Amino acid sequence: MTVPAKIKREVASLREQIEHHNRLYHSLDTPEIPDADYDALLLRLEELEKEYDLATSDSPTQRVGSTPLSQFSQVTHEIAMLSLDKVFGEQELKDFENRIKKRLDSDEELAYSCEPKVDGVAVSLLYENGDLIRAATRGDGVTGEDITHNVRTIRSIPLQLSDVKKKSRLEVRGEIFLSKPGFEALNKRAQKEGTKIFVNPRNTAAGAVRQLDSKATAKIPLEMYCYSVGIVEGIKLPDELSGIFNELAGFGLPVNPDRKTEQGIDGCLDYCMSLLEKRNDLIYEIDGAVIKVDNLTTQRSLGQNAKSPRWAMAYKFPAEEKSTTVLDVEFQVGRTGTITPVARLDPVFVGGVTVSNTTLHNMDEIERLGLRIGDTVVVRRAGDVIPKVVKVLNPKENKKPRKIKLPAKCPACSSPIEKDGEVLFRCSAGIICPAQQKESIKHFASRTAMDIEGLGSKLVEQLVDEGLIESVADIYTLTTEQLADLERMGTKSAQNLVDAIVKSKKTTLPRFLFGLGIREVGDATALSLVNHFGDIDPIAAASPEELEKVADIGPIVAQHIAAFFGNRNNLALIKKLRKAGINWPSVDVSAAEKPLEGQTFVLTGTLEAMPRNEAKAQLLGLGAKVAGSVSKNTDCVVAGPGAGSKRTKAEELGVKIIDEGEFLAFLDDLS
Ligand code: IVH
Q1: Of these residues, 117, 260, 292, 438, which one is catalytic?
Q2: What total number of domains does the chain contain?
Q3: 223 CA from centroid of ligand 1 (Å)
């Protein structure tokens, strides 16, 4: 078929535009056009390629996957793909530098390339004359598998390098990974569609790159960061890794924005510490840092051991997944009566803490995991997230498995258990169930709520068990004499507690509202409600529709709030508490301006003086929007210590960045 020149030009231009947008979207995270416009370009290209039979393997349309393979072919790496030695602490890293200096017979300060150790899959990409011609797994370092068909589906990997047209061969190596948001989105979809839940981003990425059917790979939003080069022919690259990274970025290859060049091993240690601090804020998972001698000539003179180079070292962070045994499963009754299975574990050090029990959420989760008592399981604790059982290991090796059964009666009060919604079970007794009483009192007294110092978990249990209190209102009737009679409580402590109880009466409405324990009303929602309505009576009188007008309140939360205030017992309780003397300063919403109306803020890093939730609620109250990611529409980023990629992106986009001190002063100025 003869193809008109006009069509050929359009196809070439579409391919160029699509690759340009792929790069903006995936590598630089700065999309210029809406997704729908991008889809339209792709659709037009697909139509033209079909009509004029113009499809080529390097066309961006092929990123959706091609015909399945029956097996992988083998690839021999011309230059072996080495592995890394690892250390776990400061002294070991210093020893690494000492060995290097000894070998070089020099005491001169060295520059190091410090990089996140991305937790994904190592791959090699081979470009000939600027075209991606082959992608391979590391395999055993000498022989890997040809995964070109899958790698072509990854949009941040250019099929052609920019500005590399002449006769050349360039092999870049790096890590293919799945970002944390990508992983969450996949699992959200899997949950909705009832398909298999993915265990963790790394395994998902590893599975995706080794698919015979690239259409399956294309469904996983994989990404890549390049961290080294192998074959380099016909291209002149700098003699420093830092310079090479800049050059690779110039070719359109994705490189890690969180890399840094440091002087001396102390600089590297600072890098490792700050990377560890911002680990949770990174949008990809890491298992450590990689420290490499920056100069390539020095690298060559250091050479390698059997499997790893002498010029690089992995500084490993605490593992976020470990295996342990489930010793038992108990059922706990929560503040609102929900029955939750909790696994008692053989204590295990994971993600930097010792974990000895963890929630299993509900019976469906137990079924999904196929969990039985005695099983060996993988426990994951990533960041500050609560530990989670993610997988049962070798179920056949559990010689005495015990099935986990939901109790027929509430473990706290023996009332019947009833089903609540799709997956939850609840004690039918309501607030008279002692477990529910205890949990709601603990919540009411907690620091974020009424902040009654000294009224902790153990004492609440004791007070309820002794029959001294049944509801939160009873707290305000406690006397020093009653308390002093309790075991392990002297007159002095009893007096202190009574003083703390009296002190708690002077509170704020958001604290009080939060303390009431309305389902799904956290401290930030409580603050938003107060900022919107000003006092408790209009909140209690509001319809679900009116409640939905409050920033961040959706239909479900609105229903919970309306149901709470629709219950006469709850209204009576509030009355009793106010009669006991609980009071708060009034909030004048009529005068409340919205000085930040139309502005978008992003909060990142650790905020020390003000919890992130509260900062968010204050911003919402002032009319601002609070977004989860930085874009060119962001007006201001509040960056606490450990701020990572969001801060970098704000810097790249020239978005205003302020620290917590400046933020607090800014709020002060507005109030
Ligand atoms: S350099 C000779 N840099 O870690 C140097 N590796 O445990 C070879 N990895 O197989 C690797 N991030 O899959 C290097 N910035 C980084 C890395 C990195 C992750 C992985 C890589 C390697 C493994 C070694």
Answers
A1: 117
A2: 6
A3: 15
User: The pTM is what?
Assistant: 0.64
Q: How far apart are CA 520 and CA 556, in angstroms?
A: 9
Is the CB of 309 within 6 Å of ligand 1?
A: yes
Q: Which residue's CA lies nearest to atom 18 of ligand 1?
A: 117
96 pocket-lining for ligand 1 (C-beta < 6 Å): no
Ligand 1 pocket, residue 119 CB under 6 Å: no
E strands, 421-464, in order: 424-427
Written as one letter, the residue type at 68 is: P
Distance 154 CA to ligand 1 centre (A): 20
Residue 382 and residue 411 in one domain: yes
Q: Which amino acid would we find at residue 544? A: P
Q: How far is the CA of 85 from the centre of ligand 1 (A)?
A: 10
Q: Which residue has the tokens 């599975």?
A: 207
255-304: per-residue pLDDT in tens? 999 999 999 999 999 999 999 989 988 999 999 999 999 999 999 999 99
- Beta-carbon count within 10 A of 644 CB: 23
Q: Whole-angstrom Cα distance, residue 269 to residue 94?
A: 9
pLDDT of residue 174: 98
Q: Within the chain, which residues score under 50 in pLDDT?
A: none
Q: Is the CB of 565 under 6 A from ligand 1?
A: no
For residue 267, the domain's CATH number is 3.30.470.30
Ligand 1 atom nearest the C-alpha of 122 is 13
Instruction: Give dist(CA 453, CA 495) in Å, integer.
Output: 12
- Is the minimum distance from the CB of 287 to ligand 1 under 6 angstroms? no
Same domain? 21 vs 112 = no
Reading the block at residue 185, the tokens are 């989105």
Question: Hey, what amino acid is at 438?
Answer: K
DSSP state of 306: S
String of DSSP letters for 540-566: HH--HHHHTTSTT--HHHHHHHHHHHH
Nearest to 308 by CA among 122, 62, 167: 122
CA distance 662 to 665: 5
Question: How many angstroms separate the CA atoms of 220 and 178, rounded?
Answer: 8
Asked if 391 is an active-site residue, the reply is no
Which residue in the block uniquely carries the two structure tokens 């535009």? 17
Q: Are 389 and 404 in contact (CB under 8 A)?
A: no
Does 369 sit in the ligand 1 pocket, CB within 6 Å?
Answer: no
Indicate whether 203 and 136 sit together in one domain: yes
Is residue 660 within 8 Å of residue 623, measured between CB atoms?
no
Residues 417 and 531 grouped into a single domain: no
> Where does a domain end: 263, 281, 316?
316
Q: Residue 512 is which amino acid?
A: F
Residue nearest to atom 16 of ligand 1 (CA): 117
